[in-house]
Amino acid sequence: MKKLLFVLFVLGFFTAKGQNPDVIKSDAIIQEGRMQYLKAAELYAEAAKVYQSTQVTDTFCVYKAGQNYVRAKKYSTGLTYLQQAESLHFSDETMYLSLADVYSGLKKYQDAENMLSKGMETYPALKADYTKKMAFLLYNSKQYKNAVHTLEEALGVYPRDITLLYLKGSSLERLNQYEGASKVFEEVLKLNPNHKKSITKLGVVFFKQTDAIYIQETKRYENLKNPSRIDYHNSVKKLETISRGYEKAIPYLEKAYALNGKNKQIISCLYVAYRRLKMEEKAVEMKLLLE
User: Fold this and answer.
1) Do 141 and 167 meet the contact criterion of CB atoms below 8 Å apart?
2) DSSP states of the chain
3) Domain ranges of the chain
4) Would 16-92 and 194-291 be classified into the same CATH topology?
5) Given pLDDT bands bounded at 50, 70 and 90, which one contains residue 228?
6) How confident is the model at residue 291, as a pLDDT?
7) Could you tell me if 139 and 164 are in contact, meaning their C-beta atoms sit under 8 angstroms apart?
8) 194-291 is classed in which CATH architecture?
9) Could you report the per-residue pLDDT of 13-45, keeping only the tens digit for each?
Protein backbone atom coordinates (compact mmCIF):
# COMPACT_ATOMS: atom_id res chain seq x y z
CA MET A 1 0.00 0.00 0.00
CA LYS A 2 2.80 2.40 0.93
CA LYS A 3 4.59 1.55 -2.34
CA LEU A 4 1.46 2.31 -4.37
CA LEU A 5 0.98 5.64 -2.60
CA PHE A 6 4.59 6.54 -3.34
CA VAL A 7 4.19 5.79 -7.07
CA LEU A 8 0.99 7.85 -7.20
CA PHE A 9 2.76 10.69 -5.42
CA VAL A 10 5.62 10.68 -7.92
CA LEU A 11 3.26 10.57 -10.92
CA GLY A 12 1.17 13.36 -9.38
CA PHE A 13 4.30 15.46 -8.86
CA PHE A 14 5.40 15.09 -12.47
CA THR A 15 1.90 15.80 -13.80
CA ALA A 16 1.45 18.83 -11.55
CA LYS A 17 4.74 20.28 -12.67
CA GLY A 18 4.11 19.36 -16.32
CA GLN A 19 7.30 17.33 -16.25
CA ASN A 20 6.17 13.77 -16.86
CA PRO A 21 8.78 12.63 -19.43
CA ASP A 22 6.50 9.95 -20.87
CA VAL A 23 3.83 12.57 -21.60
CA ILE A 24 6.38 14.94 -23.14
CA LYS A 25 7.75 12.08 -25.25
CA SER A 26 4.25 11.22 -26.47
CA ASP A 27 3.63 14.85 -27.39
CA ALA A 28 6.91 14.85 -29.32
CA ILE A 29 5.86 11.77 -31.29
CA ILE A 30 2.54 13.44 -32.14
CA GLN A 31 4.26 16.63 -33.34
CA GLU A 32 6.69 14.60 -35.43
CA GLY A 33 3.77 12.79 -37.04
CA ARG A 34 2.31 16.18 -37.92
CA MET A 35 5.69 17.16 -39.47
CA GLN A 36 6.10 19.93 -36.90
CA TYR A 37 9.78 19.08 -36.69
CA LEU A 38 11.10 22.00 -34.64
CA LYS A 39 8.40 21.56 -32.00
CA ALA A 40 9.01 17.81 -31.99
CA ALA A 41 12.75 18.34 -31.56
CA GLU A 42 12.25 20.70 -28.62
CA LEU A 43 9.87 18.24 -26.92
CA TYR A 44 12.21 15.28 -27.44
CA ALA A 45 15.06 17.36 -26.01
CA GLU A 46 12.93 18.34 -23.03
CA ALA A 47 11.87 14.73 -22.45
CA ALA A 48 15.50 13.59 -22.56
CA LYS A 49 16.41 16.25 -20.00
CA VAL A 50 13.61 15.26 -17.63
CA TYR A 51 14.47 11.56 -17.96
CA GLN A 52 18.08 12.45 -17.14
CA SER A 53 16.93 14.22 -13.97
CA THR A 54 15.48 10.89 -12.83
CA GLN A 55 18.78 9.10 -13.53
CA VAL A 56 17.39 7.62 -16.78
CA THR A 57 19.13 8.09 -20.11
CA ASP A 58 16.61 7.83 -22.93
CA THR A 59 18.83 7.51 -26.00
CA PHE A 60 15.78 7.37 -28.26
CA CYS A 61 14.74 10.89 -27.20
CA VAL A 62 18.29 12.16 -27.61
CA TYR A 63 18.49 10.73 -31.13
CA LYS A 64 15.02 11.92 -32.17
CA ALA A 65 15.78 15.40 -30.88
CA GLY A 66 18.80 15.49 -33.18
CA GLN A 67 16.97 13.99 -36.14
CA ASN A 68 14.12 16.48 -35.89
CA TYR A 69 16.40 19.46 -35.39
CA VAL A 70 18.05 18.42 -38.66
CA ARG A 71 14.67 18.17 -40.39
CA ALA A 72 13.95 21.69 -39.12
CA LYS A 73 17.32 22.77 -40.60
CA LYS A 74 18.80 23.54 -37.21
CA TYR A 75 21.93 21.68 -38.21
CA SER A 76 24.40 22.67 -35.48
CA THR A 77 21.94 21.83 -32.69
CA GLY A 78 20.97 18.63 -34.46
CA LEU A 79 24.59 17.56 -34.76
CA THR A 80 25.11 17.98 -31.01
CA TYR A 81 22.25 15.61 -30.18
CA LEU A 82 23.15 13.09 -32.88
CA GLN A 83 26.75 12.92 -31.71
CA GLN A 84 25.53 12.48 -28.15
CA ALA A 85 23.25 9.62 -29.25
CA GLU A 86 26.14 7.99 -31.11
CA SER A 87 28.42 8.32 -28.07
CA LEU A 88 25.69 6.58 -26.03
CA HIS A 89 25.83 3.69 -28.55
CA PHE A 90 22.33 4.32 -29.85
CA SER A 91 21.76 2.16 -32.92
CA ASP A 92 19.30 3.01 -35.67
CA GLU A 93 19.29 2.35 -39.42
CA THR A 94 18.72 6.04 -40.12
CA MET A 95 21.55 7.34 -37.90
CA TYR A 96 24.06 7.87 -40.71
CA LEU A 97 21.41 9.24 -43.04
CA SER A 98 20.65 11.90 -40.42
CA LEU A 99 24.34 12.65 -39.88
CA ALA A 100 24.80 12.97 -43.64
CA ASP A 101 21.92 15.46 -43.72
CA VAL A 102 23.61 17.48 -40.98
CA TYR A 103 26.95 17.70 -42.75
CA SER A 104 25.29 18.40 -46.07
CA GLY A 105 23.32 21.23 -44.46
CA LEU A 106 26.57 22.59 -43.03
CA LYS A 107 28.19 22.32 -46.51
CA LYS A 108 30.66 19.74 -45.20
CA TYR A 109 30.13 17.45 -48.15
CA GLN A 110 33.11 15.15 -47.60
CA ASP A 111 31.94 14.44 -44.05
CA ALA A 112 28.47 13.74 -45.43
CA GLU A 113 29.91 11.27 -47.95
CA ASN A 114 31.86 9.58 -45.17
CA MET A 115 28.68 9.12 -43.11
CA LEU A 116 26.83 7.56 -46.04
CA SER A 117 29.74 5.23 -46.77
CA LYS A 118 29.79 4.22 -43.12
CA GLY A 119 26.04 3.63 -43.24
CA MET A 120 26.43 1.32 -46.25
CA GLU A 121 29.04 -0.71 -44.37
CA THR A 122 27.04 -0.84 -41.14
CA TYR A 123 23.65 -1.59 -42.72
CA PRO A 124 24.33 -3.47 -45.99
CA ALA A 125 20.64 -4.39 -46.28
CA LEU A 126 19.92 -0.66 -46.75
CA LYS A 127 22.62 -0.06 -49.36
CA ALA A 128 20.01 0.99 -51.95
CA ASP A 129 18.63 3.72 -49.66
CA TYR A 130 22.11 4.98 -48.81
CA THR A 131 23.11 4.92 -52.49
CA LYS A 132 20.06 7.02 -53.37
CA LYS A 133 20.99 9.52 -50.67
CA MET A 134 24.59 9.59 -51.93
CA ALA A 135 23.33 10.39 -55.44
CA PHE A 136 21.40 13.41 -54.12
CA LEU A 137 24.44 14.55 -52.15
CA LEU A 138 26.81 14.34 -55.11
CA TYR A 139 24.39 16.25 -57.33
CA ASN A 140 23.75 18.97 -54.73
CA SER A 141 27.50 19.36 -54.15
CA LYS A 142 28.00 19.76 -57.94
CA GLN A 143 30.03 16.58 -58.35
CA TYR A 144 28.18 15.81 -61.55
CA LYS A 145 30.48 13.13 -62.98
CA ASN A 146 30.37 11.10 -59.77
CA ALA A 147 26.66 11.85 -59.46
CA VAL A 148 25.92 10.24 -62.84
CA HIS A 149 27.68 7.02 -61.81
CA THR A 150 25.86 6.85 -58.46
CA LEU A 151 22.51 7.81 -60.00
CA GLU A 152 22.87 4.95 -62.49
CA GLU A 153 23.55 2.59 -59.58
CA ALA A 154 20.47 3.85 -57.75
CA LEU A 155 18.36 3.59 -60.91
CA GLY A 156 19.34 -0.06 -61.11
CA VAL A 157 17.17 -0.51 -58.02
CA TYR A 158 14.60 2.24 -58.70
CA PRO A 159 14.38 2.32 -62.55
CA ARG A 160 11.17 4.37 -62.66
CA ASP A 161 12.14 6.93 -60.02
CA ILE A 162 11.44 10.22 -61.78
CA THR A 163 13.55 12.29 -59.39
CA LEU A 164 16.60 10.09 -59.95
CA LEU A 165 16.11 10.22 -63.71
CA TYR A 166 15.68 14.00 -63.66
CA LEU A 167 18.87 14.44 -61.64
CA LYS A 168 20.77 12.16 -64.02
CA GLY A 169 19.58 14.21 -67.00
CA SER A 170 20.49 17.45 -65.22
CA SER A 171 23.95 16.10 -64.34
CA LEU A 172 24.59 15.11 -67.96
CA GLU A 173 23.46 18.57 -69.07
CA ARG A 174 25.94 20.19 -66.66
CA LEU A 175 28.64 17.98 -68.20
CA ASN A 176 27.59 19.21 -71.67
CA GLN A 177 26.55 15.69 -72.64
CA TYR A 178 23.42 16.93 -74.36
CA GLU A 179 22.52 13.83 -76.33
CA GLY A 180 22.57 11.64 -73.23
CA ALA A 181 20.68 14.27 -71.24
CA SER A 182 17.93 14.57 -73.85
CA LYS A 183 17.36 10.81 -73.85
CA VAL A 184 16.97 10.80 -70.07
CA PHE A 185 14.49 13.72 -70.09
CA GLU A 186 12.51 11.99 -72.83
CA GLU A 187 12.38 8.92 -70.59
CA VAL A 188 11.01 11.07 -67.76
CA LEU A 189 8.30 12.46 -70.02
CA LYS A 190 7.29 8.96 -71.05
CA LEU A 191 6.64 8.22 -67.37
CA ASN A 192 5.06 11.62 -66.70
CA PRO A 193 4.20 13.71 -69.78
CA ASN A 194 3.41 16.72 -67.57
CA HIS A 195 6.71 16.84 -65.69
CA LYS A 196 7.28 20.59 -65.96
CA LYS A 197 10.99 20.62 -65.15
CA SER A 198 11.77 17.96 -67.74
CA ILE A 199 9.74 19.78 -70.40
CA THR A 200 11.82 22.88 -69.74
CA LYS A 201 15.10 20.98 -69.56
CA LEU A 202 14.44 19.09 -72.78
CA GLY A 203 13.79 22.32 -74.65
CA VAL A 204 16.96 23.89 -73.24
CA VAL A 205 19.06 20.79 -73.96
CA PHE A 206 17.88 20.55 -77.58
CA PHE A 207 18.62 24.29 -77.90
CA LYS A 208 22.10 24.00 -76.38
CA GLN A 209 22.90 20.97 -78.52
CA THR A 210 22.13 22.92 -81.71
CA ASP A 211 23.56 26.21 -80.47
CA ALA A 212 26.94 24.65 -79.66
CA ILE A 213 27.27 23.38 -83.25
CA TYR A 214 26.05 26.72 -84.65
CA ILE A 215 28.61 28.70 -82.63
CA GLN A 216 31.35 26.25 -83.60
CA GLU A 217 30.65 26.78 -87.31
CA THR A 218 30.45 30.56 -86.85
CA LYS A 219 33.87 30.59 -85.16
CA ARG A 220 35.33 28.31 -87.85
CA TYR A 221 34.33 30.74 -90.57
CA GLU A 222 35.50 33.79 -88.59
CA ASN A 223 38.93 32.21 -88.13
CA LEU A 224 39.43 31.71 -91.85
CA LYS A 225 42.11 33.91 -93.34
CA ASN A 226 40.83 35.76 -96.39
CA PRO A 227 37.65 33.67 -96.87
CA SER A 228 36.38 33.50 -100.43
CA ARG A 229 32.83 34.04 -101.61
CA ILE A 230 32.51 30.26 -101.89
CA ASP A 231 33.62 29.89 -98.27
CA TYR A 232 30.96 32.40 -97.28
CA HIS A 233 28.15 30.69 -99.17
CA ASN A 234 29.19 27.26 -97.90
CA SER A 235 29.16 28.51 -94.30
CA VAL A 236 25.75 30.18 -94.75
CA LYS A 237 24.29 26.94 -96.13
CA LYS A 238 25.86 24.99 -93.29
CA LEU A 239 24.38 27.36 -90.70
CA GLU A 240 20.96 27.07 -92.33
CA THR A 241 21.17 23.29 -92.05
CA ILE A 242 22.34 23.48 -88.43
CA SER A 243 19.52 25.92 -87.58
CA ARG A 244 16.93 23.26 -88.32
CA GLY A 245 17.98 21.70 -85.04
CA TYR A 246 16.22 24.58 -83.26
CA GLU A 247 12.95 23.27 -84.67
CA LYS A 248 13.30 20.29 -82.33
CA ALA A 249 13.73 22.58 -79.32
CA ILE A 250 10.95 25.08 -80.05
CA PRO A 251 7.88 22.90 -79.19
CA TYR A 252 9.31 22.16 -75.71
CA LEU A 253 10.48 25.74 -75.21
CA GLU A 254 7.07 27.08 -76.18
CA LYS A 255 5.36 24.67 -73.81
CA ALA A 256 7.78 25.67 -71.06
CA TYR A 257 7.07 29.35 -71.80
CA ALA A 258 3.33 28.68 -71.52
CA LEU A 259 3.95 27.13 -68.10
CA ASN A 260 6.20 29.95 -66.91
CA GLY A 261 6.18 33.11 -68.99
CA LYS A 262 8.71 34.83 -66.73
CA ASN A 263 11.56 32.38 -67.19
CA LYS A 264 14.30 34.49 -68.79
CA GLN A 265 16.31 31.47 -69.91
CA ILE A 266 13.36 30.12 -71.88
CA ILE A 267 12.62 33.54 -73.40
CA SER A 268 16.27 33.97 -74.39
CA CYS A 269 16.41 30.51 -76.00
CA LEU A 270 13.21 31.20 -77.92
CA TYR A 271 14.51 34.58 -79.10
CA VAL A 272 17.71 33.06 -80.52
CA ALA A 273 15.92 30.07 -82.04
CA TYR A 274 13.26 32.24 -83.71
CA ARG A 275 15.87 34.67 -85.01
CA ARG A 276 18.07 31.97 -86.52
CA LEU A 277 15.05 30.33 -88.14
CA LYS A 278 14.09 33.77 -89.51
CA MET A 279 10.81 33.80 -87.56
CA GLU A 280 11.17 37.55 -87.14
CA GLU A 281 7.83 38.50 -85.57
CA LYS A 282 8.17 35.93 -82.82
CA ALA A 283 11.81 36.89 -82.31
CA VAL A 284 10.82 40.55 -81.80
CA GLU A 285 8.15 39.48 -79.29
CA MET A 286 10.72 37.57 -77.24
CA LYS A 287 13.28 40.37 -77.50
CA LEU A 288 10.80 42.84 -76.01
CA LEU A 289 10.34 40.52 -73.03
CA LEU A 290 14.10 40.52 -72.43
CA GLU A 291 14.32 44.33 -72.29
Assistant:
1) no
2) -HHHHHHHHHHHHHHHHT--HHHHHHHHHHHHHTT-HHHHHHHHHHHHHHHHHTT---HHHHHHHHHHHHHTT-HHHHHHHHHHHHHTT---TTHHHHHHHHHHHTT-HHHHHHHHHHHHHH-GGGHHHHHHHHHHHHHHTT-HHHHHHHHHHHHTT-TT-HHHHHHHHHHHHHTT-HHHHHHHHHHHHHH-TT-HHHHHHHHHHHHHHHHHHHHHHHHHHHT-SS--HHHHHHHHHHHHHHHTTHHHHHHHHHHHHHH-TT-HHHHHHHHHHHHHTT-HHHHHHHHHHH-
3) 16-92, 120-190, 194-291
4) yes
5) very high
6) 86
7) no
8) Alpha Horseshoe (1.25)
9) 443 345 799 999 999 999 999 999 999 999 999
Does the pLDDT at position 3 exceed 50?
no
> Which tens digit of pLDDT belongs to each residue from 230-264?
989 999 999 999 999 999 999 999 999 999 999 99
CATH topology of domain 120-190: 1.25.40
The CATH topology of domain 16-92 is 1.25.40
Q: Report yes or no on whether pTM surpasses 0.85.
A: no
Is the pLDDT confidence value at 162 over 50? yes
